[in-house]
Amino acid sequence: MKCLVINLDRSRDRLDHVTAEFARIGVAFERVAAIDVIDRPDLSRLATKRMSSVEVACLLSHRACWAIIAAGDDSHGAVFEDDVVLSAGAGDLLGDAGWIPADADIVKIETFRQKISLKRKRISCGSSFAASRLLSAHIGAAGYILSKQAARDLFDATENADTPVDQLIFNPLFPTSSSKVIYQLIPAICMQDRLLGKEGSMLPSLLKPDRMRRSMATRASERGMKNAVTKARTEIRRLVIQIVNIWRLRQRTIIPLGQRGGQASTPHTQHRQNAL
Fold first, then answer.
1. Is the pLDDT of residue 201 over 90?
2. Which fold has domain 2-205+245-274?
3. pTM
4. Where are the domains of the chain?
5. N or C: which end of the chain has fewer CB within 10 A?
6. CB-CB neighbours of 178 under 10 Å
């Protein structure tokens, strides 16, 4: 199974980081040059209320990986962003695709440390890992596995997409996600460095400030629109979700990151603004 890592040409610190991470687990990876908004001022014309020019570049970078997987010989391929940290058990899973559930289109191998919904049934993936069907949104696209067919489908379906890549893949509100069989690996084998807090080297992302600005603007515009009808609909929806969760035998949980084991020291420069 080929492992692809998205990395900006100007982000040498991040390449050093991710190289050390993969070396620690004994797995090779192929670097995929990320689309850079600095080199592509034309991307500003593709930005929308849902997606900034930085997120457009991020989506295009992931689509480049999907094209590689779709055209390759392997049945599956893994995609990573360059700020991931990897657990000690990642090497065994990334070296062999035999553990992947037969009906899986996508396997999310990352955790964003948010509460999500899973089917209670778990499928053993060998050793201490299992996989469950993902039934809710689980944002983040720093680490996931695609079947060859899923990579082709995603590439074809997102030529004119106006939604961030993690929402397209891992939010069932979008048909690109709801049409796929998606599993969550338990425990996860990767996570973005910034989510480790004091344990990590704090490599921030430019996507987060963009999303926060748009979220604040949206909340401000919606604050004056709330009324009794909206509140009633929200309450009804909450009750419906509770009933559906029980009916579908869902489990609400936060996915842990597997043990990292011994860590190699990772060099970092001061150019942390070069994040995807």
1. no
2. Spore Coat Polysaccharide Biosynthesis Protein SpsA; Chain A (3.90.550)
3. 0.80
4. 2-205+245-274
5. N
6. 10
Length of the chain: 276
- Beta strand ranges found along 115-170 (DSSP E): 115-119, 123-124, 130-133, 143-147
**Which has the minimum average pLDDT: 28-32, 98-102, 143-147, 233-237?**
233-237
Task: Give the position of tokens 């191998």.
Answer: 109
Stretch among 2-11, 16-25, 160-169, 198-207 having the lowest mean pLDDT: 198-207
Smallest Cα–Cα separation from 98: which of 71, 62, 123, 135?
123
Helix or strand or coil: residue 133? strand
Phi, psi of 107 (to 5 degrees): -125, 120
- CB count in 10 Å sphere of residue 217: 11
Q: How far apart are CA 78 and CA 264, in angstroms?
A: 22
Which amino acid makes up residue 31? R
Q: What is the mean pLDDT of residues 245-263?
A: 73
d(CA 54, CA 72): 28
